[in-house]
Amino acid sequence: MRSEKDGIPQWDHNEVAKKLNDESIAFVDVREPDEYDRGHIPGVPLLPMGEIPDHIEQMDKDKTHVFICRSGGRSQKVARYANEQGLERAINFDGGMLSWEGETKTGEEKRVQDTTDLYK
Asked: By CB neighbour count within 10 A (0-12 exposed, 13-18 middle, 19+ buried), where does 28 fall?
């Protein structure tokens, strides 16, 4: 179900699961590396919240970005910040990994070093 909070669209588990393979959408896990390593959505890259400002200018403003964290709080803040920086299609995964019912993968899979890593 889609909703909105503070001007940011909110996606629940079903919406994220349905769109996960949509190449026009960049999914970004903004948790800390140890959280990501304990379990993340397969194929979703890690870009910790604190590193977002270092990459925001290079992020594709024409793409939809869905931000993910543990419960939806940090990713909401990142989505709002991204939106303020010109990423008009920033979306929050409301409920975050606590609400994720799909497959998870452990260990470091895909850490963003360069912004192009978000779009591979």
From this structure: buried
pLDDT at 49 (0 to 100): 97
Half-sphere exposure of 44 (CA within 13 A, CB side): 33
- What domains sit in the chain, N to C, each tagged with a CATH number? 3-119 (3.40.250.10)
User: Is the pTM value of this prediction over 0.85?
Assistant: yes
Catalytic residue among 46, 52, 69, 78: 69
Return the residue matching tokens 């870009």: 47
**To the nearest whole percent, how much of the chain has pLDDT over 70?**
98
Question: Active site includes 69?
Answer: yes
3 state DSSP class of 46: strand
Residue 51 CB coordination number (10 Å): 14
